[in-house]
């Protein structure tokens, strides 16, 4: 009668101490190195698509197994949870600041997340998205220094439209399975800014300056 509890305990122990890289959330979350076990792990130079997250610590939350998930609490530049199940992966309630973040299109000094929640299916298609994202520019453009917006699903794509309070700056980010696209639009740039923006790849589009970039992850 004691054999089954012993076997169950052994199985749980083996899963808990499997190498973390075998079951941590898959792309777009990636890292240059993963150390530790599923119980407690560290992601070195973690990235989500084109955004650098820095080093993150992950601690397993065993009760999430009741929902069929492997789930970890996040510590470091971000707090919240990331999770993975048999056919999906995502994040719940991520908050914090990502400093020195690099987003194509405009020079970003930092990105603040507030209650960001995402769910992607096994192929990386968007299932749900909510929360708030605020990006601070490294250098003001058209008199604006910040942009904000909320993520949403549009078909299989995860869309994040960021805009300044007056709408003069806009950064539309679309992430699809294996691909990303960023379209930056600027209205009302000062004459002194036009030369630098043109040299950076912006082109006149009606009354706006526009730049589109895309790539893979």
TrEMBL record:
Protein name: Type II secretion system protein N
Organism name: Sandarakinorhabdus cyanobacteriorum
GO biological process, any: protein secretion by the type II secretion system
Tagged with keyword Protein biosynthesis: no
Family membership noted in the UniProt record: Belongs to the GSP N family.
Keyword vocabulary terms for this entry: Cell inner membrane, Cell membrane, Membrane, Protein transport, Transmembrane, Transport
Principal cellular location given in the protein's record: membrane
Lineage: Bacteria, Pseudomonadati, Pseudomonadota, Alphaproteobacteria, Sphingomonadales
Subcellular location: Cell inner membrane
Superkingdom of the organism of origin: Bacteria
A GO CC term attached to the entry: type II protein secretion system complex
């Amino acid at each position: 009668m004691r054999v089954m509890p012993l076997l169950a305990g052994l199985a749980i122990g083996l899963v808990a101490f499997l190498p973390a890289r075998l079951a941590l959330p898959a792309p777009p979350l990636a890292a240059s190195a993963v150390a530790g076990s599923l119980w407690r792990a560290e992601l070195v130079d973690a990235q989500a698509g084109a955004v650098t997250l820095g080093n993150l610590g992950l601690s397993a939350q065993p009760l999430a197994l009741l929902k069929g998930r492997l789930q970890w609490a996040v510590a470091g530049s971000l707090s919240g949870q990331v999770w993975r199940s048999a056919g999906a992966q995502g994040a719940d309630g991520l908050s914090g600041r990502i400093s020195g973040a690099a987003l194509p299109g405009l020079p970003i000094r930092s990105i603040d997340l507030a209650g960001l929640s995402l769910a992607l299916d096994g192929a990386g298609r968007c299932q749900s998205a909510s929360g708030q994202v605020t990006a601070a520019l490294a250098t003001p453009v058209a008199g604006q220094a910040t942009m904000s917006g909320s993520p949403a699903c549009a078909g299989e794509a995860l869309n994040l439209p960021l805009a300044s309070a007056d709408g003069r700056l806009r950064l539309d980010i679309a992430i699809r399975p294996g691909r990303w696209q960023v379209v930056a639009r600027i209205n009302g740039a000062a004459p002194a800014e036009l030369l630098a923006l043109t040299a950076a790849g912006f082109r006149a589009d009606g009354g706006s300056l526009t730049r589109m970039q895309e790539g893979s992850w």
